[in-house]
Structures are given as structure tokens and as C-alpha cells.
Amino acid sequence: MSKLPNVTTSIFTVMSKMATEYNAINLSQGFPNFPVDERLTDIIAKLAKENVHQYTPMAGFPPLMNQIAKLVQSSYDRTITPETEILVTAGATQGIFTSILALVKTGDEVIILDPSYDSYESPVLLCNAKLVRVALNDDYTPNWETIKKACSPKTKMIIINNPHNPTGKILTEADFLELEKLLLKHPDIIVLSDEVYEYITFEEKHISAHTKDFLLDRCIMVSSFGKSFHITGWKIGYTVAPEHLMKEIKKVHQFLVFSVNSISQAAISQYLDVVDVNLLGKFYQEKRDYFQKLLQNSRFELKPCEGTYFQVASYANLSDDDDDVTFCKKLITDHGVAAIPISTFYSDHKDQKLIRFCFAKDNFTLEAAAKKLCNV
To answer: CA of 284: how far to CAs of 126, 201, 306, in Å?
Structure first.
């Protein structure tokens, strides 16, 4: 009998496979297609000939852990202890999976805000815990009254994703004030804050859980070098958590992967000396603005994008009958562009005729895709 009977092939795999089959431009899966920074490739080429190919310590390569502590300090003015509060993970997904597996028990409840990324559900189910899905408002702001009503004595964790995939929404100071009020009433709830797009925000700047004193003792922050540095295939992320939570997370990590790719850790630890993460927002804002300009004469209605490298668009002006999954498949087969249907991020498959494009592509790709999309 399956432990995950309702889990099927990921929509990202489905759409990318179709894009390959029909030679379509793939704006579905969230991976950049432009070159990695030459400074980073030069570093790893040099390191390939050095003695960095054996196991690193379980929690991470010590120079990288020190660099992460410096990054958190410079970005959020938070001091953390590398030895006890940092864990380098095989991508942010492993950090999320490991944290949930370590801290959630049979019978616990975990609140997930829909639309939500698909990696949250499976580890909760594998813990024999209960998923409590709470829909965001139609403008993708949290409905705090609904969230408060969803909390119970069994609630162990709330997962927040900020900046938010798939919608590009970011949390506000008012949202964190509401979260603080909620946690005061429920002192045993842990927050898992998925912040993999933390450096990719635009007009409004990202507010991290790192900056909130009320969260520091009860929150796991998950970050991604893969997303930040356009190296998704390296699968390098990290988690930051208070020592009493991190001790439990490390117990699972040591038997799940034990240690993460050594040469990648060494390369990133050196790269952090020369790269400025604060330039990422400007870089991707230019991508967003260019993609939006290219689509201004299309019949798609583009929704606000405050962060991430995803653009949500309504196709309501293009089709009265097609649900979003059908529309995305036709977009591939008939027009040569792959996107992701937003309904697949909801547990009830709520269909609002919305799809998601990834604009982390070179300008040639964005121009070619936009030309096709303007003819839909």
C-alpha cells in the first residue's frame, strides 16, 4: 500500500516533458537559462584540482557556515552561531523535508497556505500528521482570521513562503504583526519560513523572519544558494534555526544525506567573498519589467509581481471554456510555450484561469516566448 497514494507526477515534470516533446519554450519550471557568474565557475574549476572531494562535516563545510553567519548578519542584522544554528542542506527542499520530519509527529496538524509549493505536503503525510490547508485571499494576501480559526491545540507548525511561489507576493509588516498575535495565543506552534527567493524582491523589500525577535526561538528559516546564484542543479541550500530545534533537525539530516556536496560548498564559501547578493533584486526586476513590456500587447492580464522570478497571468480574455491545466497543455501544443497552471498549487484545484510564467531566462528566450504569446 502506498504511503502517498494521492501524490502523482509533479506538474513541473509534466509540463517540462511536454515542452521537450513539442520543442516549446519552457517558461514553466523555475530554472534560469543564462550563464553562471564566471567568477563562480572559475572558483570551482580551480577547486576541482584541490583536496575538497571528501566528506565535509555533517552540518556543513565550516568556512561556508561562517560565511552564512556573516551573510545573515549583513542582510538582517542577526547574529547566529554557525556550530549550533546552521545546517547546509541538499537544496532547500531537503531542508524543508528534514525539518518537518524532525519536528512533526503523528497526529500533529500543519497549516499550509494555498496556493502552496508542492514540496510541503509529502513530508507532513509521511509523519502521519494532518494537513490543514488555508486559502490565501484572491489577491494572495493572508486571511489571518481564517488562519487563526484553523489553529487548534494540535497545531504544531505553520509554513509560510515569503517571497511567495507561485504568486510573487511578499509579506508585510502588518502580516508579521498578525503572526505575532497568533503565536502569543499558541506558544507551542513552530514556524517554517521558506525564504528561498529572499534576495529577489522589487519595489518593496523582503521582510525576513530573521528580523523578528518573536520568531527567533521558534522558527526554521530555509534559504537557497541554488535560487540566489542561478545554480539550481547544484542543490545547495541551508537552514537556520535555534539550537533546540536544530539539534532535532540534525538527527534526521545525518541519516538522510549526512553531508552535502563538498566542492560546491567550498566554491560558494569563496564566492560569497566577491558577490553582492543585494544586486539580485535589480537584476531580476529588469527581467520582470522587460517581460511585462514584451507582453503589453498580448491578451494576457499580468498580475502584480513583488518578488521571485515568476509572473502570474490571467488568460480569461483568451478562453471561456478551458480549465488552466487544459489551457497550459494547449499553450504548449498549439503555441509552443510552456507555463504552469495555478490550480495545481491548491489542494482543491481552485481554477481562476491563472497561469505562471518563469522569467528567469535570457532576453532572447523571453522575446521568442513573448512573440508566441502575443499571437495567442
So the answer is: 36, 8, 11
- What tens digit of pLDDT does each residue of 309-347 get? 999 999 999 998 999 999 999 999 999 999 999 999 999
Helix crossing, 363-373 with 280-294: angle to 10°? 30
Q: What is the DSSP string of 28-59?
A: SS----SPPPHHHHHHHHHHTTSS--SPPPTT
pTM for the model: 0.96
| Separation between Cα atoms, residue 171 and residue 169, nearest integer Å | 7
State the helix-helix crossing angle for 62-76 and 262-271, rounded to 10 degrees.
40
* 239 beta partners: 87, 222
One-letter identity of residue 372: K
Residues 266 and 44: their CA atoms lie apart, in Å, by: 8
Backbone angles phi, psi at 301, to 5 degrees: -100, 115
Q: How far is Cα 50 from Cα 46, in angstroms, rounded to an integer?
A: 7
